[in-house]
Amino acid sequence: MSSVPVSHPARSVEWHLPSKRRVGMTALIVGESAIFTIFVVAYVFYMGKSPSGPTPSQVLDVPILATICLLSSSFTIWRAEKAIEDDRMGSFTVWLGATIALAAVFLTNTAFEWKKLIYQDGLTISTNLFGTTFYSLVGLHATHVVVGLFLLTSVFIFSLFGWVDSRQSERFGVVALYWHFVDSAWIVVFTVVYLI
Amino acid sequence: MSDYPLPVSHVIDPSTSASERVTFLEKLHGWVVTVDHKRLGILYILYSTFFLLVAGAEALMIRLQLAYPHTHVLSAQVYNRFFTMHGTTMVFLVGMPFLFGFANYIVPLQIGARDMAFPRLNAFSFWMTAFGGFLLYYSFLGGAGLYGVGNAPDVGWFAYAPLTLRAFSPGHATDYWALALIVSGFGTLGTAINIIATVISMRCKGMTLMRMPLFTWLLLIVSMLTLVTITPLTAAQFMLLIDRYLGGHFFDTQAGGSSLIWIHFFWIFGHPEVYVLVLPAFAIANEVIPVFCRKAIFGYPAMVAASVCIMFVSLSVWAHHMFTVGMTSVSNAFFTLSTMLVGVPTGIKIFNWIATLWGGRIRFTTPMLFCIGFLFQFLIAGLTGIMLSVSPWDWQLHNSYFVIAHFHYVLVGAVVFCIFAGIYYWYPKATGRLMSEALGKWHFWLFAIGFHITFDTMHFLGLLGMPRSIYTYQPDRGWNFLNLVVSVGGLIQGIAVLIFAYNFIVSYWRGEVAGDDPWDAWTLEWTTSSPPPVYNFEEEPEVHSRRPLWDLKHPDDPDREYES
Fold it and tell me: Which of A137, B39, B78, B447 is the most buried if burial means most Cβ atoms within 10 Å?
């Protein structure tokens, strides 16, 4: 796009606008936060209101390992971001792989937790209010982890083929932004479901 | 010419389509796969015009049923379906797509961009919205699910629980309703993200935030509001589907669930939604009023600030829909006060528009007539809103025709009037031809007269105690004459809309050729040709004031001398 000749060069100012991808992702995150808020509010509103069991204190174990894994994946993806900005592609692939592994540990943990809840404790989404709100809130978050994992794995496969370099660092930054959101959403979900 | 050249655009390659004949199928294919913001904008407008006629016909059927006591035009069940479909259609398939259509078409042109930030997301959003509309109306065919149950949704547009649960709404009608809103909700979310990214990141050189046209400013604010407005509805719809399909208990009162929380979730969406609809109407008035009274808008920074205020305050007023639900007196007081507070920034806007008109050389063209109608009607709508925000008054009139009259004053008297103003104003830009002024004046006067006959009278029906959502009434209630008047007014509005539809279609071929700038306007969309080329601007424009085209036309007295 050619620019219009300006006859008052003194008046002409530097023209920098924010990246449209980052703005778009930020907007998406704001919208997603509203969805999470509604599900968190529903969970908190119905706490202790189930007329029948099982109750959270009877069946829930605090997933400490999974939480550590997910939260530290925010650190590894930040390292990957730094690596791709400096065009250190080997380091990028390693840090990205670590992020994916940590996320996979988190999801596996959730899978085993749900298996235990369903088969040992007999808690499904239709058992009681706790089941309904628990599975929908944790499930909403897990869905976001799955989407993030899909994005990260796609980038990982591309980078194995050598298709990714520092020119894509802005795009990868957008994926990382989403991933940081998924992690911070977990802090809220974890606090509400397992700590309170 | 100005020393700040603006690209008054010439078409670079004179249309290749003229040389080769394009078959109808190729043309259709072009429209279906398009990612051009102008074509998508036109698709939005055509889509919502179609549904405006459909939902308008539903309203006329409702009025036909209510014209006399004990009529049998519609059965009670069909009546419930019609008012549900009328409300849902008007809000989700008419109001929002109309406004997003305008945003799609106008925003990139006004900020000197060649397209939206994410053109493919834009196309995806439109087709999701379109699919949502299709799903909703497919319920007439596929909604029955079980023998003997109704087809279209009949739970009201707010669909209070537990009426929507399986036990009380068997069949698929309610599912079609929920799915349609989820699907079109994703489309809305996509468009909102797109508009925000476009306005923030695609502005041409020199267009700082405080030089943006107010239309663009308001659409930015609306899109931000949409992000946190449509998503709670999506979340609540997912909860409803979990209840209906997976045996969940969110709204199941027998298992400890609460129907109250649905009401909260719905109005957390539902009230900001009113501002999502009305702020773009303000946006259109902000463009039309200054141009047709030949003055710059009065109090530009105050207009921006008031709009931002409305965005924030509108998020904390939802429970004024719930005074009769039974809340604590503290909540009642809070929501009464916050609702009254919205009146302050809105009042600032009304005064600014009046101050813009003050001393202007007003040209009474059709768009301007609609905007003047809007000013009067929106004032009255705001005043009845203040009345209803007083909770004891609301206890008397909740769910009466007074409330119906109030929100139709907002949604028709303000939003629809401004949509018509916008169509008459930008039609020449989109098609290259002006709509007929004579028919436009007929349209305006019939519509305004019909509007007042219908909705002024409804206030009195409400005060006389007529509740909403009833399919008929006893002849000895004293409502007979007023109901007949309301229905006659509805019929007059129907005729006016048909005149509009005729004008809209025929002007495309027979309208007067408009030229690039038929209204002598000041914003960037009027610098390019009508209709604009695919790439909008040959060269990226550069602006130095809020009215770049004024600067170009008046190099001796440019706006930039007066703006800080």
Answer: B447
